[in-house]
């Protein structure tokens, strides 16, 4: 079938592709709360917490130049982009959840834990970001269809950023609101050890809130990014004659609006 005879991209396909914009949800929450979590909840040295938060952004930009050529060279029976979407998604969801888990180990063990997880998390996120933006080139040969699908992705991305902050804030707040009680400041507790025990219990509750929030956001992201994998068709012949379409329109994912 020639390009002119092809059917226009359906609304369902545009929505399924647009749902990939929900990748912005965990990245927005991570950018807003990672440093706070590492310093106040995981109780790591401030310098390390700041280095991880900003280092992740730098690593994300570097990974773009590594992942894009690898995608360009991919050619499987399941397509060029879909294997990357599914593979990186299967790595991204658990990695995002685990970066909000505070292991009960010594400080050196925590440093190693977060360093490894943040590297894997950033690699998976970058692979997803590059794959989803590149995938639009394989949805349709019609530039208007591709522009429309990209607009849906931008809309869902904006919604996901707002929703992510709201979901995370509400879940964490539900586990920390007990600190507002009359005993939170220790005025009704004559024994200092009781205050220390209470502080430890409150911190444990807050850790639980962060972990549950991460699980919920990871699940939402997983379902939304799975949508273009199962709800769209990769038209591989769209790129024939181009040769560099995997890098067209791809910007560093750290530069998301």
TrEMBL record:
<protein>
    <submittedName>
        <fullName>Sodium-dependent lysophosphatidylcholine symporter 1-B-like isoform X2</fullName>
    </submittedName>
</protein>
<feature type="transmembrane region" description="Helical">
    <location>
        <begin position="83"/>
        <end position="99"/>
    </location>
</feature>
<comment type="similarity">
    <text>Belongs to the major facilitator superfamily.</text>
</comment>
<keyword id="KW-0812">Transmembrane</keyword>
<dbReference type="InterPro" id="IPR036259">
    <property type="entry name" value="MFS_trans_sf"/>
</dbReference>
<dbReference type="GO" id="GO:0008643">
    <property type="term" value="P:carbohydrate transport"/>
</dbReference>
<keyword id="KW-1133">Transmembrane helix</keyword>
<dbReference type="GO" id="GO:0015293">
    <property type="term" value="F:symporter activity"/>
</dbReference>
<feature type="transmembrane region" description="Helical">
    <location>
        <begin position="47"/>
        <end position="71"/>
    </location>
</feature>
<feature type="transmembrane region" description="Helical">
    <location>
        <begin position="151"/>
        <end position="171"/>
    </location>
</feature>
<dbReference type="GO" id="GO:0016020">
    <property type="term" value="C:membrane"/>
</dbReference>
<dbReference type="Pfam" id="PF13347">
    <property type="entry name" value="MFS_2"/>
</dbReference>
<dbReference type="InterPro" id="IPR039672">
    <property type="entry name" value="MFS_2"/>
</dbReference>
<keyword id="KW-0472">Membrane</keyword>
<feature type="transmembrane region" description="Helical">
    <location>
        <begin position="210"/>
        <end position="230"/>
    </location>
</feature>
<feature type="transmembrane region" description="Helical">
    <location>
        <begin position="111"/>
        <end position="130"/>
    </location>
</feature>
